[in-house]
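Researcher: I'd like a structural prediction for the single chain below. Treat it as a standalone chain; there are no partners to consider.
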Amino acid sequence: MSFWQQVLSAGGAGFLLTVIVFVLGALVLFAIRPAERSRLRAALLLFAISIIGVLALASFSSYGLSTEKSLYRWTEWASLFCAGVAFVNVASVFIFTVFLEALRLKPAHVLRELLRALSYVVVGVFVLSIIKVDVTGIVATSAVLTAVIGLSFQDTLVNVMGGMTLQTERAIGVGDWIKIDGQEGVVTDIRWRHTSIETRNWDTIIVPNSVLMKSQVTVLGRRAGQPRQHRQWVYFNVDFRYSPAEIIDIVESTLRAEPIPNIAVSPMPNCVLIDFKESYGSYAVRYWLTDLAVDDPTNSIVRTRIYFALQRADIALSIPAHSIFVTEDDASRRERKSAEEIEKRVTALRRVELFEPLTEEEQRALAGRLRVAPFVRGEAMTQQGADAHWLYVITKGEAEVRVSADGNVSERLATLGTGDFFGEMGMMTGEPRTATVIALSDIECYRLDQEAFHDILKSRPEIAENISEILARRRVELEAAREGLDEEAKLTRKRRHQGDLLRRIKGFFRL
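Model: Treating it as a single chain, here is the predicted structure.
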């Protein structure tokens, strides 16, 4: 028998076909699956070792070595085992990366490795049975050895089980951004023993799976049914000279005006006042980051937009707390500041028709009794039905008047702006508020209490008649617009209202 016939005999039926099919299949997978080339190279190497084993068996036969000899049998087993492992590797690449991916199925990495390892064991046992080795005896003998190995590699087994649990439960997957023990990074691989995490600093953290199973792990940016995005906080400080509502409006407007790369459109970025410090307010911008790898660069863009938006509004970021403001304060300065404030208040009072009957001296006296009363956007300046005996004069901003009837939804009645006033009936007669006034923007206004007006009325009671005439006229004008009254009806109602109002004013102020 020739050597080639010995090779075919040792390789078994279909040896050439098996070699051709294996090599062609491995080469095709090598071309279409570059990521699996290292495994395919190992498979080709093992298959080459198997062929060498077949050639060795043919040589043994040509020299007359019996097939019952141990050398022949174990060489045969090694050759078959290498071929079996090579086939398992090539088949696993085809099944997991070609066939299952075509069905849009992606088993866990640990599950793939577990199936491969199980296949290796099956191949080993099958080959042993082919060469007529007593597998039962080996299994019985290896039971004690298995127990010893299990105790020796207890930590390793815990890591392996942890990796299997992570993969099967899918609590953490490749591509997830996680935070553990203060470290943040993206999961790049989950192996039998460890999980690899790449940080933003270009480092790779190797975390044993048992540690992951025992520690509290935060999966960043994951919410059921929502896209992956993580909320970022950017802090800045502005001193108390500027209104919080104004700062929030400026910052939110600039961040929402034009899309910023890697920032989610929904929820929209927002600005909030976090805290009051010694000399400034602490603010924070909150936005949702869609690419968790670029947190610092995106924070930088947000800070830049905040800075320039505040610069355009002539608002500077807060001066460090250790800075000291020194102002020379003397009697002349205080008098000058007081005179400027009085002039400002007198100008505001002169816009109010109600105070036209007052002399300049009385207006100045009243100006000294005014109180500054600011309101923030959305705040109720007065509530319908409330007992409030003061009048408001708006010097900056807008507000709206709402009236509700029988507990129904309030209806918008009018809009008030700079120079307008309201609450005169409550101050002059003590009647409850007939409407609710809501600030549409930040409001700067003065408030005048009943007590401040009391001294003037005491010294000149005749002013009450002039004021009652003005109040009556304003009320009749409103009724005429609502009911379409003619001139005679307007005069009649005016006389009636004036008499009633004068009586109520005198009673309220005890004139």
